[in-house]
Design goal:
Low-confidence stretches: 1-26, 31-35
Distance between the termini: 158 Å
Mean pLDDT: 83
Shape: elongated
Oligomer: single chain
Strand content: 25-35%
Helix content: 10-25%
Structural class: alpha+beta
Number of strands: 13
Number of helices: 6
């Protein structure tokens, strides 16, 4: 039985240093206390495996990112214990400088966030230094602090990676799948990782975009609850080298943000032009000289022909009418005399 002794605490009453005995196995030997020596048993670590996969991912960004991108970058570093951080890179520097930064940081994978015009965010996922590398446009970003989902997982635990079946049907998606596996999967027995699997990274292809989600695995019924963050990756190009080189694939469905904004402006401008044309036509109609109408066309609306009656000619004079006076009627003068 090999034993390792180290100093703990200060000196004892006899002037000698107290020593602790650390054992490699999990057995607990009998603890003996004397006036001079004291042995303390420390249990062995949970995982006795060897760290073989030395994947290290450098996660950093360029200058000009907003607060949402900064929080997303911090969330990725929290979820992936095998990542390293670095200071922001200047915009004037070439992208090939990232290979030297990764070599200095001893990293063989890189996730680089590039901001343009303070409104567009691009993400590079590269295998340093030989490639390949992929460039994405990041859309619909929601961070952990923003979502406030009910899911939760242990910090540093290893995730499962779930991919859409379409990743195996097309070659460029198969290449991205292998790149994501090597970048987002936590190496086994990593010193900063935990020996538990309690969450899932899902990569789903919908509408020619890759949708990223993070779910917690509930132990009771193995159901999943979303944790966050979430974002959408719109593939632009896949390069053979690291941050450059020959183009292996170019997405034909990709539309740049500048083109999208220009189309929106053109649609808005066309609507305004149409409204202005309608106003001009109405003004021309009002200013036109109106023709004088001598005869009103509505005069004949109520002129309806009368029914014709047959003409009757009387040959004899009509008989004279006899008016019978009321003899019993008392006139007003007679009524006054009776009073």
């Amino acid at each position: 039985m090999s034993a390792l002794k180290r100093k703990r605490g200060g000196k004892g009453p006899g002037g000698k240093v107290k020593k602790a005995k650390l054992l490699e196995n999990g057995t607990k030997p009998e603890t003996t206390e004397t006036g001079q020596n004291k042995e303390i048993t420390v249990p062995a670590p949970v995982s006795m495996g060897k760290w073989k996969n030395k994947e290290r991912v450098l996660v950093f960004s360029s200058r000009g990112i907003n607060f949402r991108t900064r929080h997303l970058m911090q969330d990725l570093r929290t979820m992936m214990p095998h990542t390293k951080a670095d200071t922001k890179m200047d915009r004037k520097d070439k992208l090939f400088v990232i290979n030297e930064v990764c070599e200095i940081k001893n990293c063989n994978k890189c996730i680089f966030f590039e901001a343009k015009k303070k409104m567009d965010l691009y993400m590079w996922v590269a295998n340093v230094p030989h490639g390949p590398s992929a460039k994405f446009l990041v859309q619909n970003i929601h961070t952990l602090a923003e979502l406030k989902m009910t899911g939760n997982c242990l910090k540093g635990s290893r995730p499962l990676l779930s991919f859409d079946p379409q990743f195996d049907k097309e070659p460029h998606y198969a290449l991205l799948k292998e790149l994501f596996i090597q970048t987002f999967s936590t190496p086994q027995y990593h010193p900063r990782s935990q020996p538990f699997v309690d969450h899932v990274f899902t990569f789903t292809i919908t509408d020619n975009r890759i949708w990223f989600r993070n779910y917690q695995i509930i132990e009771e019924d193995a159901s999943m609850v979303e944790i966050g963050p979430r974002f959408v990756l719109n593939l632009i190009k896949i390069f053979q080298g690291s941050f450059g080189g020959p183009t292996l694939y170019e997405n034909p469905f990709f539309e740049s943000p500048n083109t999208h904004r220009r189309l929106i402006r053109m649609a808005t401008a066309s609507k305004l032009k149409e409204k202005q044309m309608i106003k001009d036509l109405q003004k021309l109609k009002r200013n036109d000289n109106k023709e004088e109408v001598s005869r009103d066309v509505t005069d004949d609306v109520f002129a309806t022909p009368a029914d014709e009656k047959p003409v009757h000619i009387e040959l004899e004079a009509p008989a004279r009418k006899v008016v019978k006076k009321n003899k019993h009627k008392v006139f007003k003068r007679q009524r006054k005399q009776k009073r």
